[in-house]
């Protein structure tokens, strides 16, 4: 039997925030962007998630104003996208750090990624 949460009020700030950033891959993308990975290929290699899923999550973060898409071109290559945190995205740093600290303290076997 599946139960639906009683309070699905979209005016709840926690519920509304989770609609934007409450998915595993989204949080891991943000973690990696904070760690200095800005290119699609870097994120794909680090995360190991399917390309279509990564593209979808990046698009959602750009549409939400958390990441900004910036074009770059390596010599002899076509233009590609890099992703940078916006002010809105940088405001998520304390949340990610707190989640990391909680995991280190309460989840066996966790470690800070290199």
UniProtKB/TrEMBL annotation:
<dbReference type="InterPro" id="IPR036390">
    <property type="entry name" value="WH_DNA-bd_sf"/>
</dbReference>
<dbReference type="GO" id="GO:0003677">
    <property type="term" value="F:DNA binding"/>
</dbReference>
<keyword id="KW-0804">Transcription</keyword>
<protein>
    <submittedName>
        <fullName>Transcriptional regulator</fullName>
    </submittedName>
</protein>
<dbReference type="InterPro" id="IPR036388">
    <property type="entry name" value="WH-like_DNA-bd_sf"/>
</dbReference>
<feature type="domain" description="HTH hxlR-type">
    <location>
        <begin position="12"/>
        <end position="111"/>
    </location>
</feature>
<keyword id="KW-0238">DNA-binding</keyword>
<dbReference type="Pfam" id="PF01638">
    <property type="entry name" value="HxlR"/>
</dbReference>
<dbReference type="InterPro" id="IPR002577">
    <property type="entry name" value="HTH_HxlR"/>
</dbReference>
<keyword id="KW-0805">Transcription regulation</keyword>
């Amino acid at each position: 039997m599946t139960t639906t949460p009683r309070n699905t009020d979209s005016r709840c700030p926690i519920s509304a925030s989770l609609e934007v950033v409450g998915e595993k891959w989204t949080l891991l993308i943000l973690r990696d962007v904070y760690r200095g990975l800005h290119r699609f290929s870097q994120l794909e290699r680090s995360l190991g998630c399917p390309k279509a899923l990564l593209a979808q999550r990046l698009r959602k973060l750009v549409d939400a104003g958390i990441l900004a898409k910036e074009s770059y071109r390596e010599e002899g290559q076509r233009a590609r996208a890099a992703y940078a945190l916006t002010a809105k995205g940088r405001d998520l740093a304390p949340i990610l750090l707190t989640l990391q600290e909680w995991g280190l303290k309460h989840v066996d076997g966790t470690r800070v990624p290199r």
